[in-house]
Amino acid sequence: MKKRYFLPVLAFLFCFSAYSQTATIRGILLDENQVPVPGANITFGNDGNTTNGNGFYQIEIPANQEVTVVFSFVGFKNITQTFNLPANADIEYNPVIKTDIAQIATVTIVSNRRREREQGVVTLSSETIRKVPGAQAGVENLIKSLPGVNNNNELSTNYNVRGGNFDDNLVYVNEIEVYRPFLIRSGQQEGFSFVNSDLTQSVSFSAGGFQAKYGDKLASVLDIAYRRPTGFGASVNASLLGATASVEGVSKDGRLTAIAGLRYRNNGLLVSSRQTESNINPIFADAQTFITYKFSNKFQLDFLGNIAINDYDFEPLNRQTNFGTLADPVSLLILFDGQEEDKYETYFGALKATQLVNENLTLKLIGSIYQSQEQEFFDILAQYRLGTPDNNIGSEDLGEVEFTQAAGGQFRSARNLLDALFVNFEHKGEYVKGEDQIDWGVKYTHEDIRDQLREYEIIDSAGFAVRPPIPDFANDQPFTPFEGPIEPFTSVRARNDVQIDRFSGYAQYTKRTDWGDNEVSFNVGVRAHQWTVSGQDIESSSQAVFSPRAQFSIKPDWNQDMVFRLSGGVYQQPPLYRELRNAIGEVVPDVKAQKSIHAVVGHDWSFNMWGGQFKLVNEAFYKDLTDVNTFTLENVRLRYRANNNATARIYGFESRLNGEFVPGTDSWISIGLLRAEENQDNRGFIARPTDQRFKAAFLFQDYIPTIPSARLYLNMVYQTGLPGGTPSNVDPYDFEDLPRLRDFFRADLGISYVFTDEEKRKKKNFPKGHWLHPFKELSAGFEIYNIFDRLNSITNTFVRDANSGQQFAVPNFLTPRVFNVRVNMRL
């Protein structure tokens, strides 16, 4: 495959800003939980401003004189700060506003999160993200504890939201859309997600019914903001699974800020604990940076860059899986020969120019380039036998196979290569006047994908080669010899050279007002998307779609602090390259956009209980999908049929209670009910591969009252089993009655001791020379993943017995209990 090198070349038009005898103060207003506060007032004299939806503010004050600035918000203590700055000075000030204790009876934990309550957005604390334990710690680890988010693989950062798959999710970092590799087929190959938790300032998540300003996907939006440093800082986190490090700083004049992070991970500790014994060396590393330069008080340029290298070498040796029941136990033994060598290299660079034209109008220009070079090579021979294990307790041969009832082999080979290049140019605008806001944007994307698929599978059962299903095939052997060619059970051979050009845009209007004594907010908007698929030996195809969306919320003038909201619209998902490629690797250029009519009804109630502040959020949703592009799900590998031959319906109810179950900490309980069904070719509704009926999650933070420096974090999830899947080349309707996978239950525990943090430093004021003086934070502890040693399964391996004609669904189990040690430090 022709190799292309990553070379970001982006050009921007710079606007000029007039000189004046003023100075600039900017920053982010935070609450006590380090969450940005939107809609707060910043005043000086008769002038002032308010914080935007991300808690960011910017004001210009007279230079060379003392100016008193007041930060205020209902239910919180005012912050008063005096500044005397020279002309054209530019400083960053990030105050923390605290709850007004005198008003605690009438003010709730979320009174400062108007945007969250109006839009049904969940805001997550960056500190909680970094502390909650998990085999794949980070933003996605915390998101999986939310009610509408499901994941059955602790080695994966992918997640399914409300019956969709992980291709249906949007991820933004500082308003820039980010991507993931294409060829990955199992969680243990994945490595890191794009989002670096060490660089994160704020995290917002919407599970559906989101606004038109977000992209064309069917399921969810994860909106990440990386922080802009206010001074020098550094952090190091190390564990038996790897290490991360970050450094940040600000130039003397305050115009240049930069933050960078390095991550290294080796999943050998987790993968080697699975039932398959192997020689494995999964190494993942990436480097990421976010740089901002402010040319003037009104113009700034941001750069976001990332380089990731995932190297996965895997040599399986043997495996024994016991399944079945106590009365009828079955054991699968496999001896392997061969190995797998996969490599994924991704490069990403983006520039964002922001021009503050005036106090009402903001213009942005964004350009980005993403390149992914991926290879997947393996040749693995698996020789298996099925038998009955000895289940007599006390027997010397307990667990050993006594009787072999079937034997066979499987040979899998692949030589897959992919080179994808995405180029984006985008303009965004925002006009705010009082309680009215208009947002708009236009975007052009060019996608160039060169793909080679060479993979096949040969199955042998008791000396017989198993053929793929052939319609009207009659086997009259040995009386009539079979003279046809011997073919592999599955075979995919394709070479694709595809270009996709996309033009998209959106416009939306937001209004906040009062209806009598009630607070009301509404948002209406529309998206448009036109795309053209072309390429070598492909007949060019163009299509266009429109997506109107709306949101409405009302906060009644009641004694109870409640918000009711309704959102939805038409959500359409134009196909990405993976969705254009069918099961045999061919590109189908005229695949339509999947369409979903989505409605969400929500209720948000904030109250005080047990001396703490709590919030209860309930949502009911319904999705009616047409032109569905059906898929099969194997671990984290999606294979689409690219035929738009189905309709689907997804509906459910979710509830989440969060608050201070223990004073000074934030915990929550989530419950979700879901039904996801699809109807292929009008043959009746069957469960989608993502039909996970029930979920309960519990995130708990605690400390020992007599030793408050000893902290505990418990992340626990229970989910009912997914559909058991289907073997290759079969009709899913024939396996509709296959038992589901076993229920998923997992609990991860983290215990740490905090030697110092911001609160301790203020109280003890460690002198120079004290060993804790250099640290803003230092903690050490241990983590236990899967503390109850639950055997969870992610998929089934289908094993065939030619003699009996029986087919066995053998579960593929995930990781057992694993112990990890962790040290965190921040300078």
Characterise the protein shown here.
- By secondary structure, the protein is mainly β.
- The chain has six helices and 42 strands.
- The strands form seven sheets. The protein has a 22-stranded antiparallel barrel. Strands 8-13-14-11-12 form a five-stranded mixed sheet.
- A hairpin with a 2-residue loop joins strand 31 (about 630-635) and strand 32.
- The longest helix has 7 residues, at about 760-765.
- The two termini are about 45 Å apart.
Strand content: over 45%
Percentage of residues in helical conformation: under 10%
Q: How many DSSP helices?
A: 6
Uncertain stretches: 1-20, 100-112
Give the rounded overall mean pLDDT: 84
> Main beta sheet, described?
22 strands, antiparallel, barrel
| Overall form | globular
- Give me the Rg, rounded: 28 Å
**N-to-C terminal Cα separation, in Å?**
46 Å
Counting helices, strands and paired strands, the structural category is: mainly beta
Per DSSP E runs of 2 or more residues, the count of β-strands stands at 42
In short:
With 827 residues, the protein is mainly β. It is 4% helix and 57% strand.
Task: Please describe the topology of this protein.
Blueprint: E1 22-28, E2 41-44, E3 47-50, E4 56-62, E5 67-72, E6 79-83, E7 90-92, H1 114-119, E8 122-124, H2 126-131, H3 139-143, E9 149-150, E10 160-161, E11 169-173, E12 176-177, E13 200-206, E14 220-226, E15 233-239, E16 242-250, E17 256-266, H4 268-271, E18 276-294, E19 299-324, E20 329-356, E21 361-389, E22 401-433, E23 436-461, E24 464-465, E25 490-515, E26 518-535, E27 538-555, E28 561-573, H5 577-580, E29 594-609, E30 612-628, E31 631-634, E32 637-640, E33 646-659, E34 667-680, E35 685-687, E36 694-704, E37 707-719, E38 744-756, H6 758-764, E39 777-785, E40 793-800, E41 807-813, E42 818-826
Parallel strand pairs: 1-7, 11-14
Antiparallel strand pairs: 1-4, 2-3, 2-5, 5-6, 8-13, 9-10, 11-12, 13-14, 15-16, 15-42, 16-17, 17-18, 18-19, 19-20, 20-21, 21-22, 22-23, 23-24, 23-25, 25-26, 26-27, 27-28, 28-29, 29-30, 30-33, 31-32, 33-34, 34-35, 34-36, 36-37, 37-38, 38-39, 39-42, 40-41
